[in-house]
């Protein structure tokens, strides 16, 4: 069960400061010892120690970003009359700016420590990138560590959007996420929200409110799969559909090994609540191979390349007036397209990086390719 807000703020914020201080104090001696050991061995052990340096560097950068963000949040709280004006437009804009800068710092560190490169192909024209004025509902697959942060970073820094995110309540254990996400229009999904209120009803109501309030620069981000892809979750998702009597959907899900079966209720609720919104589907690959801690550790041996594909469905092309079963089938059609794209990308050769990659907004190396693509 998630601790109450006062306890989280009183315990976790000082804990982050202590961890950052410990990392800062330990980094110089550990770095010197690791470098010396690597020079002596110059073998697999040396490689492992270089990975340790990457982890320490990234952890230090993340902790520094957390402390900087928490300091700014405190200053904004005081300047807003001790929180009295935090929900006004000027302070909302400042907090989105803090989010963008924090993610810039994190992905700059990821680029330096892990060689992170991101290539995005898809709709970056009217209605999506800077200059568009239509609200967006973004439906993305969920796989690998940090994929949600990559997506939000891209929406903020490249598309110049204000993302509203549907996320798990446990993410509030991160102090920066806890403070910032609760000041901005987001939704935290609890397994047991309130006594006497069904969890499913509570979730759909939260999503409906977020979608109904979308402005022209807003983007509602939903991960219909409900969690990161793992083989176990994939099998459980198929079994769940069979137990519900949806053998037709179970068969379709079994034919899509790269993605989890999407939960349609949240996505369709958002689509119905904002008739003016275009729908963006997001596929990506690269992080999905990092399922376990061992996978992440092995991945630190080389650079990390993430490839993403965005598709845009204009508001007029979304089957909002169709039957529920037709809408669910439409969502599965798109998930099938995402699965097929992942299969194709995983079979393609990986080079050392896109030739036209550029360090966008001072963060990871990002290449944006393609024009406004409605159907891929």
Specify the overall morphology: globular
The counted number of beta strands is 9
CA-based gyration radius: 21 Å
Order of helices and strands: HHHEEHEHEHEHHHEHEHEE
Looking across the biggest beta sheet, what order are the strands in? 4-3-5-2-6-7-1-9-8
Transmembrane segments: 12-40, 52-79
GO molecular function, one term: acyltransferase activity
Keywords: Membrane, Transmembrane, Transmembrane helix
Domain Phospholipid/glycerol acyltransferase: 136-268
Question: Could you give a short description of this structure?
Answer:
The chain is of the alpha/beta class.
Features:
376 residues; alpha/beta; 11 helices; globular; disordered C terminus
